[in-house]
Amino acid sequence: MNRFAELQARSLIESATSGCEDYLQEETPKFYLGVDPTGKSLHLGNFQGFILAKWLEKMGCEVTILIGGVTASVGDPSGKMSERSSLGQDQIEDNSSSIQSWIARFMGPSIRIVNNRDWFDKMNLTTYLRDIGHFFRMGPMLGKEWIRRRIQSDVGMSYTEFSYQLLQAYDFLYLFEELGIRLQIGGSDQWGNVTAGCELIRKKTKESTHGFVWPLLTKEDGTKFGKSESGAIWLDSDLLAPADFYQEIVALPDSIVINALRSLTFLPLSEIEHLEKSLSKRDLQHLLAKELTLLIHGDKGLEEAHAGKKLHMEKDISQVSEDELEKAKTATISRSLIVGKSWLSLCVELGWLESKNVGRRLLVQGAVKINGKQVDVDSPLEDSNFLKEKFIIFNFGKKNQFILKAS
For the residues of 230-255, what is the DSSP string, one character each? Predict the structure, then answer.
């Protein structure tokens, strides 16, 4: 098996350094994938990297996942037109813990997970300048397109952001020297950071290392799927329930579905080619939603998603069974905290609405339903609002549905 060719056929390689294909043909190539814990959850844009990591693991490669506890505090400026908001250390640690738990569940016990805080916390400024900064030249750094674009913009670029590529390059150097890792992978917006690491290792050790990047998953307007862009598709069920995740995937435009089946699932390419010819576009969207929900949320999550799918399609909510409501429920809280509470306040507290203003705007648009019936006022919830004496279904617009169960 030619690992490189297989990944290319699945649209998982956009650019690669010289010699990368040969390195991937060695018996047990070692690679790492880095992720900065800038949010509590990973999102669909991150998922492509972890699917790729799983493919490489299946192909016999040794996997290391790096969590950027330090680089998250700096903020990667790649592809950004403004500086990221700085995160406090407590927030970064909470995010790291949450993301590491998800990675361990998805990737399994055979991989290694490291955090760059383990080595950067032992480094002082003098060491940083001597061991990292000494090998970088300003000309090539300033010549990178995304840096030049930011510097010439009204926003500009801080030294903090400018130094990010040095920190990521040192991550690669450290992992090469300590663990023998010779390959870094990342999204296409990481190409400059990946090659900076290869160049640092070459200058400092005279050794060759490699990198490749995958094409970013983008929407029809060319923007990427991320947390700072509108409509983030979270992987954590606490932020996006499996039923809502399923609906988000079904809503993806036709133009990206086939490519997503190649790059985000483990379906054989021959099967995808056959399905593209035999299924309707709508059926392909549901196939993608099924495969991704199963990969990310497991059998139980897919069962919840199917129950939620039926609820989305059900015209008479009263006909939905208690078992179906139980499978599709989003949250369970005490009845005493529900009855007499404004539904708007409750949904904001549960995180189902961003704010009361957002809820009121949806009200004006006629986009709020409780138990399938449109509401036009912010009223307190009563015992009569419960279906089967314990459930309330909230719909905000066409896609967002939440099911509350009273305990």
Answer: SS--BSSTTTS-HHHHHHHHHTS-HH
**In tens digits, what is the pLDDT along the chain, a chain of 407 residues?**
799 999 999 999 999 999 999 999 999 999 999 999 999 999 999 999 999 999 999 999 999 999 999 999 888 877 676 666 778 899 999 999 999 999 999 999 999 999 999 999 999 988 888 888 888 888 787 877 778 888 888 888 888 888 888 999 999 999 999 999 999 999 999 999 999 999 999 999 999 999 999 999 887 666 777 655 456 789 998 888 888 898 889 888 888 999 999 999 999 999 999 999 999 998 999 999 999 999 999 998 888 887 766 565 555 566 677 777 777 767 888 888 898 989 998 888 888 888 888 888 888 888 888 888 888 788 889 888 888 888 888 888 877 788 888 88
Handedness of CA 84, 88, 89, 92 (dihedral sign): negative
Query: Dmax of the chain from CA atoms?
Result: 74
Residue with tokens 């870094």: 184
Which pairs with CB-CB distance under 8 Å and at least 24 residues apart come from 361-370?
Answer: 362/396, 362/397, 367/396, 367/397, 368/394, 368/395, 368/396, 369/393, 369/394, 369/395, 370/343, 370/394, 370/395
Q: Are the C-beta atoms of 388 and 322 separated by less than 8 Å? A: yes
Quick check: pTM over 0.85? Answer: no
Report how far residue 351's alpha carbon sits from residue 87's, in angstroms, rounded to the nearest whole number: 21
Q: Which residue has the tokens 């990427």?
A: 224
Rg (CA), the chain: 24
